Amino acid sequence: MSEKPPEVAPELPRFRPIPRRRRLLLVALAIATAITVVSMLLDPPGRPEHPRDTQVRECPTGRGVNCVGGKAQVLLLAPDAPSAAASAAR
Question: Which residues have CB under 8 Å from 13's CB, separation 6+?
Answer without folding.
Answer: none
